[in-house]
Amino acid sequence: MNILGISALYHDSTAALVSDGKIIAAAQEERFTRRKQDHMFPINAVQYVLKAGRLKVSDLDYVVFYERPDIKLNRILMSFIKTAPKSFSTFLKVVPAWIVDKLNVDAMIRRELGYQGKILKTTHHQSHAASAFYPSPFERAAFLTIDGVGEWETTTWGTGLGNQLNFHKRLWFPHSLGMLYSSFTYFTGFKVNSGEYKVMGLAPYGEPKHVQKILDEMIDIKDDGSFHLNGRYFDFDSGGPMITPQFEELFGRPARRTESHLTQDDMDMARSVQEVTEIAMLKMANHIHKETGEKYLCLAGGVALNCVANGKILRDGLFDNVWVQPAAGDAGGALGAALYTWHQTQGNYRQAPGATKDLQRGSYLGPEYSNADIRQYLDECGISYTYLDNIEAKTAELLSEGNIIGWFHGPMEFGPRSLGGRSIIGDPRNPEMQKRMNLKIKYRESFRPFAPSVLEERMTEWFEIKKPSPYMLMVADVKKARQKPMNTSEMSLFGIDKLNVVRSDVPAITHVDYSARIQSVTEERSPRFYRLIKEFEGITGCPMIINTSMNVRGEPIVCSPGDAYLCFMRTEIDYLVMENCLLEKKQQKGWDESDDWRKEFVLD
């Protein structure tokens, strides 16, 4: 049975293919169109996953959409009615689009794909829950899904056993932890639905000065983790700004203008909403454990990408392990919809792998290019390169010399994290590396932290974590023995001034609070990336490297060799490795945007 899952028409449009219960392929449309968070129908992603499965459209048994547009429209209409006449202009813009496309998803699928078979729909949080539990290592577990909003639901929890999901509790719009976090994303001058990472990264530079005010005025969190937002401060309904004037009055200041100077108060806001989010998530996790008695917890939904909160749930110790869907946001909904149909709707058996293995295949579910593909591309474009058999050893040597390298290998990752397939890598021992990579490679804010990719067997020697973290979704502290204490003058620093303090033996991946967002790497899951880190350890004694996504600010992660070459040439990356091909910046001809470097590249 071949099942195609689709998420589309909001953000992170995605296609995922499941055949007889096995995850074959999954990819976000943005990677092909190069439009970040592309919301259009994922025709390119569909074409890819079908090609990966060696299928035609006519081979599909089901196409499953990840949510119920009719129920979602009901919520939107009721919100417009509630906020009329303020919402009237937004109503005139939004509703026609719903009537033409979003309410007629079946017709769109048939039109775009030429598909004549069966079309099903799951609900938004059924898709999230399925994406969390079914690929997990566990035969049975509790699940928790938290996001902005699906149709009406914003938070759900329940249990998974074998092939069945059972929902125990739901929270409803407009009471949303995701929306609360996004309102502060907006207030601190970042873009909603993409700037939440920045708020999380900014939080350690601030103080939790506003936590009590948020708890007293904005959100009432019960002992079981359920919560109620005070609608006086939020405007989620009318289509206007996320916040009301009362929000700004409460904090005695207007929202920060995008790209303007970051103040200490912005950092304090970020720290405060982060801590409130952690309070709510920890209370939910505690209540779920108490009610279900389950040993394991699975997480999905956009809020589950909050790796700081995830790490605290894991360290809390109530659950023996916590597994987070690598594509926890709406992209993962496409995969969840397909898996829900196979297991829950069709009643097919599920064999959990157990222990720490999972069914996500490392989340390496995207397009892959062979050495022959890459050499053909480079030769046709007249691009200078060297072919090396032992590329890992040479790359490790270049890293140890302080070079920044683009690393393009194997299948593209599914989800927002680069995991050694489409990565920019560097030496974590270099105290200048974080600032250099942020400002000269990623072209983003200097405060943004970078993650370490560490050999899994050496992880506990460097970090305060006891379970693998293969998907870079857990934050843990650097071991005390690896930390460097601050002197008196350093301890008196505030805000961004903290950035350049050397805090550990690996300063480039140590955040200002001595934490790191960890990817644990095994030879089984990522053989070549593992060998690269092993070679680097052999040279330096350090069993980890910096790993960040291969893209620049405002662009999706690269997909093809042409995308990687563009990123290489437009930034100050020193070398680009594509499979066994090594490109040195100094050997490239003069860069011209009009050159025919980005040829149409079709996989066989």
Give an account of the 3D structure.
This protein has 604 residues and is of the alpha/beta class. It has a domain at 371-587: Carbamoyltransferase, C-terminal domain (DHBP synthase), CATH 3.90.870.20. 35% of the residues lie in helices and 18% in strands. The protein has a nine-stranded mixed beta sheet, sandwiched between helices. It has a five-stranded mixed beta sheet with strand order 3-2-1-4-5. The protein has a five-stranded mixed beta sheet with strand order 8-7-6-11-12, sandwiched between helices. Helix 6 packs across helix 13 (330-345), helix 7 runs antiparallel to helix 11 and helix 15 (391-400) packs across helix 19. Residues 596-604 have low confidence and may be disordered.
Give a short overview.
With 604 residues, this protein is an alpha/beta fold. It is built from 20 helices and 21 strands.
